[in-house]
Design a protein that fits this description.
The structure is a homotetramer. By secondary structure, chain A is of the alpha/beta class. The longest helix of chain A has 18 residues. The first copy, chain A, has 13 helices and 11 strands. The mean pLDDT of chain A is about 95. In chain A, α1 packs across α2, α1 packs across α13 and α2 crosses α13. Chain A has a 6-stranded parallel beta sheet, sandwiched between helices. In chain A, strands 3-5-4 form a 3-stranded antiparallel beta sheet. Chain A has one domain: 3-Layer(aba) Sandwich (Deoxyhypusine Synthase), CATH 3.40.910. In chain A, β1, α3 and β2 form a beta-alpha-beta unit. At the A-C interface, α5, β4, α9, α10 and α11 of A face α5, β4, α9, α10 and α11 of C.
Chain lengths: ~300, ~300, ~300, ~300
C-alpha cells in the first residue's frame, strides 16, 4: 500500500487529519493506527482499561479523562497518587498555572509555588486538599481498596473525573495512592482506615477474567502500566493494546518496554493487535479523544 | 494565567485544538505557541527560512513542503540530499510504501526493497532517478550552486515542491547534495558541472542580511539547521525561531541544542522569541501547517 | 577552568578514568562529578538513600546493590517489587539468561521464557519464588511494613542484598511490593498479613528527620524516586542528590524531572549540590561503585 | 548463557570492567560487545572507517581521535566541519572551558563566549583560526578534496589529530567542511581553491572497494554516518559495524536508524556482525579506546 502525501484542507477536522495519518509514516501513522484500534475496541464491545502516569492532570487533561469515562471509551482507570491529588486541587477550585521550566526554583520555593516542568501550583492548593481529605478520611473506616476510597472522594466532589467514575461505578485503581500527599493525609487523618491493596488486586483480577474482549490504553508507563498488565497474568491476556510513551525500549525498563515484550509474559495475547506511539501524550491523547468523539 | 482543561468538541477543527493547546502544558503548549509564533512571523512580513532534515518526504510530507512555499509560509528552504532524491522518486511516479520496522532486512535486500524505518522503497525508483538526473546533469555546465541545480531539476518536474520553488524563484539550498545518490550521479554524469557551495554561501549570506525581520523554522537538526543558523553569524541574528526536534539538549550535539544556545553565538537575537517542540515532526508539522492554512 | 583532553593510559583504572571525566563535558563530566559528590556524601557522614527502578537485578547489578549496603555507600534502599522478585529468583539459584530483544515473543511464550529487553528468564523461576514465598508468608502475621517483610525474606536467603540488609538492619522500602508477583503471592498465602505502608511512611519520615546531612542517589525514577523525595516534604530537604536517568525533563513526567525542580517543592535544599547523569545505569552505576571502592 | 552479576574489584581496570559488561544486559552489554567487535576488526586486519559527529572535540576527545589514528584502530576518518574548526582552536593553543548549560546566553554573547551545552569557547579563538586559515588557504590552489585540504592544514599544526593523519597519510573526509566557519574562510581567503567533493567521493569509493574486510565505527549520526555508509552502495557492504548514538530508531531519521536497516540498502552485508550502543559517546568512546589500548 502506498504512502499518501498528507493533504491539508481548509478548516480541516482533527478526525480527518487522523484518518490521513494512517497512510503516512513514523509516529503519525502510529497515531492514526491507534485511533482506529481504540475505535475498534469500542465497536467490539471490549472491556477497556485506561492507565495514565505522568502529570496529565496538571497539564490540562482533566476533561479528557472524565470524557473517556462518561462516553464509555474506557471502563476502568488506573492512575497515580499524584494525578489524584492534582485532580482534587482542581475540583476544589485551585488552578494550575502557566509557568516556565526556566524559573528559578529556590525563588519559587520562597513564593510557595511548586513546579511541574512548565506548570506552577501554589502550596495553598495542597492545604485545601488536606482540609478536604481530613474530613473524608475522618468519616470512613475499615479495610478499603483504593477504588473504594476514590469513589468516596468522588462522591464529595463536583466537576471531577472522580465524580463521574463514582456515578458510573467505574473503578479507578490507584496502586500508588500511599505514594502521594493523599497517602500522607490518609496516615494522619484516616486512623480507622486500612488501605488494603489486596482488595484492589482481587477486583482487578475479576475484571481481567471477564468473558469478553479485553483492551488496554497505556499512557506513560510506571506502576499503572505494570499493575494493569500484570493482572492479566492469571487470565487470557489482552486482545488489543495501545501505548503512548516518551521512553524507549533500549534502556530495558518497563515504561519503555514494547507491547510485544508483554506477549512473552502472556499479559497480551500472541495474536493481539498492538500499537505504540512514541510521543508526548499531551499532544496525542487529545487527538485520539477527538477522533473517538467523532466516531460514535 | 491558568491552565485550561482541554475541551474537545464534536467535529473539532485542528485550528481550534491548536488554540486550546496554548493554555495546556509540556509539548502541547509548545505546539500551540509555535503555531502562533509562525503566524506572527507571516503577519510581520518576516523573511522565513524553513529547514528540514530527517525522512520527511518518504513520510508523506511532500505537499506540506510545497504548500509552505506556495502559500508563502516560508521564503527559502534548506534540506538534505536524501529528501531531494526521494522527492524526485515521487515526482517521477514512484511511491514509497507502507512497510514495517520489524521486516527482515536481508530479505528486503533480496527483494530490492530499501527500508526507512516503516517505509519501503523499491530500488527501481532509484534507477528512474538516475536516468532522469543523467539527462539533467548532461545538459548543464559551469560552476553552479545547489539552489541553481535544484531550480534546474524543478523546471523538469511536474508535481513537486522543487517545481513550485522554481516557479516562485524560492531558493532551495541543499548543502549535502553531494552526500546523496544525486551526488553520486552528479559525479558520474555532470562532467561539466562544478557544484560550487561558495555560491550557496554567498546567496544565503545575502538573504540573511536583508533589512527585514528574519525568521526560521527548523525541522530536525543536522546540516540544514547549522547551515541556516550559521549564515546569520555575519548578520544581525534571527528575530524569531521555531524548532521541532526529537533530540535532547543534554547530549551536547547541535541537533538537540536549544535555541537559547544559539543566542550565545549571536545567530539568534538576544530578545528573539523562540519555541522548541520535542516531538516527531510527522505529527506536529501537519498540525502547524493546518493552523496556518486557517489563519490566512 | 579548561577542558582537558582525555588521556587514556595502558592498564588504566576505572578510578582514574572517572577522575579524568571531571574535566571533560556532557555526561562524562556529569559522571565524574557524581562520583566525587557521592564520595563527599560518605566523607561528610551523610545518611544516604539509594533508590532504584528499572530492571537492575535482571541486568546483573545484584552485587553492586549488596556492596553498596555492605560498604556503607547507602543506608536505606527504596526499590520496586519487580527487582525484589528477580533478586529472590537469583538467590534461589535461578539465573537470568543472555537473550535478545529481537526474539519472537509469542515463541518465547511457548517456551516459557519471559523477556526483559535482551534478558530471558524461565517461568520455572517464578514457581520457585512462589514456593519460597508461600512458606515465608505462611509464617508471618500482623500489620507489617514492606521493609519488615523484606528483612524477613532476607533472613531466609543466602547470597542476596536482602540478606545483607537484614543483617545490617538497613531498611529496604518497597512501596510497590503489591504491584509485583510477590504481591499476588502475599494476597494468596499471607492471609494473616496486612501490608501496611503507613508503617513504611512513618519509618521513612523518621529517617528523613535525622539531625544529620542527608543524601540521595536516584537510579531510574518511578515510585522509588517519588517515595524518597516526598518523604522530605515534612523535613528540611536533602543536602545532596544524584540522579541517573534515561528520561528527559521536557516531557513533564516525574522520572525525568530535574533535581532543581525538586527544590521548588523543598524536597531538596535550595543550596544543595545536585548532579544528573543522562545515561543507562547499567554502564554508569558500576563505574560509580568502582570509584567509591577505590576511594575508601 | 547466564547473566553474571558484575563483580567490582579494588583497583579495577577499565579493560576488566568492559569484559564483565559482556555478561550483563542492556547498554552495558552492548558496550562490552562493541569493544570485542572493534578488537576483532583489528585482529582480522580490516580496513576501518571511524566517523564522528557531535561536539566530540570541544568535549575533550581530541587525544582519543589522534590515538585512534596513531595506534591503527582506524584507517580513515569522516567528521564534521565543526569538529575540524574546534580542533584547530585547540591546536593553536585556545582552550575550551568548563561552563554550564544553565548560563544566561545573552550575557555570554556580551562576554564573547560561545556555548556548546556545558562548554564555553571565547570568540577570540575563532579569530586565531581565521588568521591561521587565511594563510593556509592563501597558499593553496586548484581543485582540492576535503581530505587534501585537511592534510595541508595538518601539516601546519603541531599537536593535532590532523597532524597525525597528515603524517600517516590517513584520509580525513569532511563532507560538511563548507558548513562551518572554516567554510566561510575558504570562501573569503581561498580564492584560487575549489573545494571539490567529487574527489572525496572518488577516493572513498576506492577505499570501499578494497579487497579486504571492511569495518566501520559510527559515533553520532549525521552526514559522516551517511557519507561513509553510502560509499558502500557501489561495493560489497561492510563486514562489521558499531554505532554509538543517543538517537532512537522510532523517529525515522538516519542518525537513529539501526544498522540492520542499512542491510536492506546493502550498505552493510547481510551476515555482518553489528552492535549499537545507545549512550553518550563522551562516556563510551573513552572506555572502548581504553579497552583497545590494553588489547594490542
Amino acid at each position: 500500500m502506498k504512502i499518501e502525501s498528507l493533504r491539508i484542507r481548509k478548516e480541516m477536522k482533527v478526525f480527518d487529519l487522523v484518518e490521513a495519518f494512517t497512510l503516512s509514516a513514523f509516529n503519525a501513522r502510529r497515531l492514526g493506527d491507534s485511533a482506529k484500534l481504540w475505535k475498534r475496541m469500542i465497536e467490539d464491545d471490549a472491556f477497556i482499561f485506561f492507565t495514565f502516569a505522568g502529570a496529565m492532570i496538571p497539564a490540562g487533561m482533566r476533561e479528557i479523562i472524565s470524557g473517556t469515562i462518561e462516553l464509555g471509551f474506557a471502563h476502568s482507570i488506573v492512575t497515580t497518587g499524584a494525578n489524584i491529588v492534582h485532580e482534587i486541587c482542581e475540583s476544589l477550585g485551585y488552578s494550575h498555572e502557566i509557568g516556565s521550566e526556566k524559573a528559578n526554583d529556590p525563588e519559587l520555593a520562597e513564593r510557595d509555588l511548586n513546579r511541574i516542568y512548565d506548570v506552577f501550583i501554589p502550596t495553598s492548593a495542597f492545604f485545601a486538599v488536606e482540609e478536604f481529605l481530613s474530613k473524608v478520611f475522618g468519616e470512613i473506616s475499615g479495610n478499603l481498596s483504593s477504588y473504594e476510597i476514590l469513589w468516596e472522594i468522588g462522591s464529595k466532589l463536583e466537576n471531577s473525573f472522580l465524580r463521574v467514575a463514582f456515578e458510573k461505578r467505574v473503578p479507578v485503581f490507584c496502586p500508588t495512592f500511599h505514594d502521594s500527599i493523599a497517602g500522607l493525609h490518609l496516615m494522619l487523618y484516616g486512623k480507622k482506615v486500612v488501605l488494603d491493596y489486596k482488595k484492589d488486586i482481587k477486583k482487578i483480577l475479576e475484571l481481567c477474567s471477564q468473558n469478553r474482549k479485553m483492551g488496554i490504553i497505556i499512557v506513560g508507563g510506571g506502576v499503572p502500566k505494570n499493575f494493569a498488565l500484570q493482572s492479566m497474568l492469571l487470565s487470557k491476556g489482552f486482545d488489543y493494546a495501545i501505548q503512548i510513551t516518551t521512553d524507549s525500549p533500549h534502556f530495558g525498563g518497563l515504561s519503555g518496554a514494547t507491547l510485544e515484550e508483554a506477549k512473552s509474559w502472556c499479559k497480551i495475547k500472541k495474536d493481539a493487535k498492538v500499537v505504540t506511539i512514541y510521543c508526548d501524550a499531551t499532544i496525542t491523547l487529545p487527538i485520539l479523544f477527538a477522533y473517538l468523539v467523532d466516531s460514535i
